[in-house]
Specification:
This protein is α/β, with parallel strands linked by helices. The chain has a single domain (15-189), classed as Uracil-DNA Glycosylase, subunit E. Helix content is 26%, strand content 21%. The chain has 5 helices and 7 strands, in the order βααβββαβαββα. The strands form 2 sheets. Strands 2-1-5-7-6 form a 5-stranded mixed β-sheet. The chain has a two-stranded antiparallel ribbon with strand order 3-4. The chain is globular and about 45 Å long. It starts with 14 loop residues before the first strand and ends with a helix.
Length: 191
């Protein structure tokens, strides 16, 4: 199967949020589940709020795209073609990637300065894509990645920084409050 959405980039885009793959029935990037707080975080940043609002998961794709445009941020996923063990699963462990997206070429062509990975698994698959090997299940990848910059590429227009952000899911590591996540995303999106 092929990823259902094209990369969402505009001419002013300098940053791309990178995930793994949307659920099969998702109408847009990142599910409409209230468990995923990405849209709440992004809307709060776009509106200059100091705390994370709720309920943004139900925004229309057009409204979500407007938020991204305001933040000069694009969105795409690392998995381009895949099989799933369970079709309605939202778990990365159920994904068998068949082809990765060429994020580095996309970033170079569009003079992107930051690739912001919102899930550690997306960053692992990205690092594996650079090795030009056959795609593997995430469980078989042994990369150690911490929050912050984990890879930098030099280009003629400047560096492309690859940055791991905290997961936008409600659950997370101890101490990762929504305020912490909001601040982490603001630091990378607004600068």
């Amino acid at each position: 199967m092929k990823h259902p959405f094209a990369p969402l980039l505009k001419s002013m885009t300098k940053t791309i949020l990178v995930g793994t793959l949307p659920p099969e029935n998702a109408p847009f990037y990142f599910s409409n589940s209230s468990n995923t707080r990405l849209w709440d975080i992004l809307k709060s940043i776009a509106e200059g709020k100091k705390e994370v609002t709720s309920g943004s998961n139900v925004l229309t794709p057009k409204e979500k795209e407007e938020i991204l445009n305001k933040l000069k941020t694009g969105i795409y996923d690392i998995i381009l073609e895949y099989d799933r063990d369970v079709m309605d699963s939202t778990k990365d462990k159920d994904i068998q990637p068949l082809k990765y997206s060429d994020l580095l070429s996309l970033a170079k062509q569009n003079q992107i300065t930051k690739l912001l990975f919102v899930y550690k698994n997306a960053a692992k698959w990205f690092l594996h894509s650079l090795e030009k090997e056959k795609p593997k299940r995430v469980q078989r990848l042994k990369y150690e990645i911490d929050y912050g910059i984990f890879k930098t590429f030099e280009t003629e227009y400047g560096d492309i920084k690859c940055i791991l952000l905290p997961s936008p899911l409600n659950r997370g590591k101890k101490g990762e409050t929504l305020d912490f996540k909001l601040e982490s995303y603001q630091q990378e999106i607004l600068i």
